[in-house]
């Protein structure tokens, strides 16, 4: 089997797996929305605020994962930046729902700060690399124009 056939087969299997994963996540998203709807219209049910907020935050997490699978099919990859956004969101969700332990809160906020710092560094480094590439292209174009006319 040639490398091209193997790569094509791998991409086909990966696409099917991502489709199944996306459908599963969409199912969980619909389940969470249905559960929220039931909670909204059930007037006799006594529910605490943290339970509702946990369900809402889980719904947003499933929505983000569905968007990730959509991005995979639209662009044939998932950006590292989106994974970092989801990491920050997940840590914030965890902090909002489970906030009984002081040391745990400190560790979670430190993790959020580190993820945000890494995201800033990542974005700045990408911008720097793109600026360097454009500068090299401009220099090459200027060199060609100078030496073409000579």
From TrEMBL:
Pfam families: PsiE (PF06146). InterPro entries: P_starv_induced_PsiE (IPR009315), P_starv_induced_PsiE-like (IPR020948). Keywords: Cell membrane, Membrane, Transmembrane, Transmembrane helix. The chain crosses the membrane at residues 12-30, 105-124. It is found in: Cell inner membrane. It is a multi-pass membrane protein. Coiled coil: none annotated. The keyword Chaperone does not apply. Belongs to the PsiE family. This is Protein PsiE.
């Amino acid at each position: 089997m040639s490398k091209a056939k193997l790569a094509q087969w791998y991409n086909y299997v990966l696409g099917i797996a991502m489709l199944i994963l996306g459908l599963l996540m969409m199912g969980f998203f619909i389940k969470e929305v249905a559960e929220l709807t039931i909670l909204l219209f059930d007037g006799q049910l006594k529910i605490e605020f943290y339970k509702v907020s946990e369900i809402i935050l889980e719904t947003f997490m499933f929505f983000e994962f569905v968007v990730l699978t959509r991005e995979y099919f639209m662009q044939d990859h998932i950006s590292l930046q989106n994974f970092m956004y989801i990491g920050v969101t997940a840590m914030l969700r965890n902090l909002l729902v489970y906030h009984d332990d002081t040391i745990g809160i400190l560790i979670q906020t430190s993790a959020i700060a580190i993820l945000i710092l890494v995201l800033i560094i990542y974005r700045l480094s990408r911008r720097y690399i793109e600026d360097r590439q454009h500068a090299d292209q401009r220099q090459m174009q200027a060199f060609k124009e100078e030496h073409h006319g000579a």
